[in-house]
Write a structure and sequence with these properties.
The protein is 21% helix and 11% strand. With 70 residues, it is of the alpha+beta class.
């Protein structure tokens, strides 16, 4: 059983704080990673958003999940 079903998350009954607790307990609930660097914090969706907050310039090719080159 998926955590979403198991926890009853389809129901609109949880506070934002409680939903964050569920995400901390079950990271699979988060669609994309939250990345923290000295330059900031971003929810990296689409994945190339991470390039905005990398402390060093991109080095080499970057491929997205679908194989698209960035």
């Amino acid at each position: 059983v998926e955590p979403c079903e198991e926890l009853g998350l389809a129901e609109d009954k949880f506070t934002d704080d409680r939903l964050i607790d569920f995400m901390l307990q079950h990271p699979i609930l988060i669609n994309r990673p939250i990345v923290v660097t000295p330059l900031g914090t971003r929810l990296c969706r689409p994945s190339e958003v991470v390039l905005e907050i990398l402390p060093d310039a991109q080095k080499g090719a970057f491929s997205k999940e679908d194989g698209e080159k960035v």
